[in-house]
């Protein structure tokens, strides 16, 4: 099952949306390929990913490591009123840090108003999502972590 179908099948959204190919901005955590090496990635010049209107992700790191099956990390910008995708679940744990702007994050049915400096943690397979409810661009940093099987 690809990520778009997984999101549609596990998210809380109207069935009409689940049945269409709604544009989303989502970063799939890579678990195959070359292992990540210690390095610095410059933000300037990173390509924007995603096709959800008003949501662009810039990925700095994505792949397996010596200790993790996979890690994906980067930044996302949301225009006022935008969200990268409907609330969803995935097998990775995820952290988000709000760098600028204001909005709301839903985690496991609880909605919280957020601003710069606030942080979210979502356990694996817990429903979560973010929306820019402010009047300016919101920027947040994300890190998704997938442990190696034991």
Write up what this structure looks like.
- The strands form two sheets. A five-stranded antiparallel β-sheet has the order 1-2-8-3-6, with no helix packed on it. The protein has a three-stranded antiparallel β-sheet with strand order 5-4-7, with no helix packed on it.
- It has two helices and eight strands, in the order ααββββββββ.
- It is mainly beta and 150 residues long.
- It starts with a helix and ends with a strand.
- A hairpin with a 2-residue loop joins β4 and β5 (110-115).
- Mean pLDDT is 89; it is low at 1-20.
- It has a single domain, classed as Jelly Rolls, CATH 2.60.120.10.
- It is globular and about 40 Å long.
Quick synopsis:
It contains 2 helices and 8 strands.
What is the topology?
Blueprint: H1 3-10, H2 15-18, E1 55-63, E2 68-78, E3 93-100, E4 102-107, E5 110-115, E6 119-122, E7 128-132, E8 138-147
Antiparallel strand pairs: 1-2, 2-8, 3-6, 3-8, 4-5, 4-7
Distance between the termini: 23 Å
CATH homology superfamily name: Jelly Rolls
What is the H/E string?
HHEEEEEEEE
State the strand order across the main sheet.
Answer: 1-2-8-3-6
- CATH architecture label: Sandwich
- Total number of distinct structural domains: 1
Q: Give the uncertain stretches in residue-range form.
A: 1-20
Main sheet record: 5 strands, antiparallel
Share of residues in strands = 35-45%
């Amino acid at each position: 099952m690809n990520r778009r179908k997984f999101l549609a099948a596990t998210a809380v959204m109207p069935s009409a949306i689940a049945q269409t190919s709604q544009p989303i901005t989502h970063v799939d955590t890579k678990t195959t390929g070359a292992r990540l090496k210690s390095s610095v990635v410059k933000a300037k010049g990173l390509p924007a990913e995603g096709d959800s209107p008003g949501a662009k992700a810039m990925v700095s790191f994505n792949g397996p490591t010596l200790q993790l099956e996979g890690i994906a990390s980067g930044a996302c910008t949301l225009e006022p009123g935008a969200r990268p995708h409907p609330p969803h679940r995935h097998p990775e744990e995820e952290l988000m840090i709000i760098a600028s702007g204001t909005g709301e994050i839903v985690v496991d049915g609880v909605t919280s108003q957020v601003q710069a400096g606030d942080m979210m943690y979502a356990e694996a397979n817990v429903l979560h999502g973010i929306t820019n409810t402010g009047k300016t661009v919101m920027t947040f940093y994300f890190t998704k972590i997938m442990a190696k099987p034991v």
